[in-house]
Structures
1.
Amino acid sequence: MWKIFRQSVEYGWHRLTSRKVYLVCMTVVPLLCTLFFLDLMKAGLPLKVPAAVVDLDQSQLSRRVVRNLASTELVDVCYKEESYHSALSKVRSGEIFGFFLIPRDFQKDALSGAGTTVSFYSNLTVYVPGSLVFKGFKTVAVTSAGGVALTTLSSLGINETTAGTLLQPVVLNQNELHNPWTNYSIYLSNSFIPGVIALMVALMACYTICEEIKNGTSIQWLSQSGGSMLMAVIGKLLPQAVVFGAVGVFIQMVMYRWCGFPLNCPPLHMIAAMLLLVLASQGFALILCCAVPNLRLSVSLASLTGILAFSLAAYSFPVQSMYGALGIFSYILPVRYYFLIYTDQALNGVALYYSRWFYAALLLFIIAPLPLLPRLKKHCLNPVYIP
């Protein structure tokens, strides 16, 4: 048995190293994606999003509002436009992501008690900068309204302390748990990068298995494993799992040690999650190969599910808010359970006991293809490739 196992692994390793593109896909692609995402979001929360101001009043109060807007960390007032239409044209051209409109007679109406309206427009076609501009505009609008009300109350003889209490009777104490910096990279990098790894693992597994059927070498592949389909699959996928696992653990080390991402659990918990993700992604790919033992179709299915996993794995959008027909697919994606483990262990630091079912789900993906191996063996013994 040991001799057959060794022979099968040697055959799989030889096939894996026979083409440089395999090694590039297993090492260079994940590392480049890691470098790209970490460098792209190294500043954490995007700051100073380009915006414009349309000040139709040009009063002392309106200029103070513009200064307050320019001093916020979310908005960079790059342009001061003369009209609504000129500002809107800059939004359409992509030069800015929103603009703040102060109407005529703003100071006069605000201080006289007649009431006035400020308008702000944000381009949510590009969601992240658009939402940040919206947040910055709304904050300035609310504080400006409070400032006007405070000035009015003070003019009536009410001291500032009492006026402040009247304006804000309840003080909010906000506490952002586990990501107080609202650093986008902490959750985006930890979703995109494992997603890329899972995608590459599935593609490599589907391609290397179905390539044997396409090239007609599947009979030789089986003979190297003593005719055992299970041994053949282990010999084929084990070298890939070792390489992908090492790359994945190295990437985790970069994120948690070098980048300083939160790790509120023993490192072994996340290392085990990464290794199980690699094996579970291989198991998922093996299910696709058994169901559709065709190189083109299996790789296409692996690509489709891998890309959809970025949306359907429900890390940035909850399953409860998805359409039921779509949300159910999140439960058949291995990477979803890795995200849940990351949230529980690395971010929240809960006891391992409460994440046991997520680890068990990844283990289930590893053993799920076993009943389907006879079907794959049948096609390997009769290799017929249909383009």
2.
Amino acid sequence: MEKSIVIDVLRKVHDPEYPMSVVDLKIVNEEDISFDGEKIKIHFTPTSPFCPMGGMIGAMIKYALEKRTGKTVEVSLKPGTHAQEKMLNEIFSDKKQYDDAIERLRRAGILERCVTV
């Protein structure tokens, strides 16, 4: 897998508060992408240390990449970039919490509005 493919997928993931992709907002850049065997790893930077959408954005990044690539995706905040870094990283890594977050995004219409897969 190439980083350019990951970037192309993420161009279709939009911040819920801004009409721009996570790539255009520089939430994810090529240097934030790495690979561990077949796993895709993303370390993202929210728009601010108190970004209320940080959890949603991380969940949508993981969702879009898993749906489009069929690969396992590990998403985390870049260290020191969000006030609730530990809690949000737990949501991204815990299957039940992540699945619950995706379901809430789906019910609220945010997933459909912000992610094209």
